[in-house]
Design goal:
Blueprint: E1 4-6, E2 12-13, E3 49-51, H1 52-61
Antiparallel strand pairs: 1-2, 1-3
Length: 76
């Protein structure tokens, strides 16, 4: 299970730790979270989260490396 980060505020959901504020026990994979789950920090939809591997891939593909967090939007 890998971590997922909110692309809006940077909050990181770590399945190994769970999320005590939302009564999510350790071991709860991100893919198993309810569809209406949202970021406990900023309220962003879970659709705005990216896995650690996706973030690494986007960082490698970013043309100018200036995005924070990195994105897959073409730079002009």
């Amino acid at each position: 299970m890998e971590t997922y980060s909110c692309n809006f505020c940077g909050y990181c959901y770590d399945p190994a730790k769970g999320e005590p504020r939302l009564s999510l026990a350790p071991g709860q994979d991100f893919a198993c979270l309810p569809e209406d789950w949202c970021c406990p920090e900023c309220g962003a939809s879970r659709r705005l989260f990216a896995s650690a591997s996706a973030m690494r891939r986007m960082a490698e593909e970013c043309q100018d490396g200036g995005c924070e967090p990195t994105c897959d939007i073409p730079c002009f």
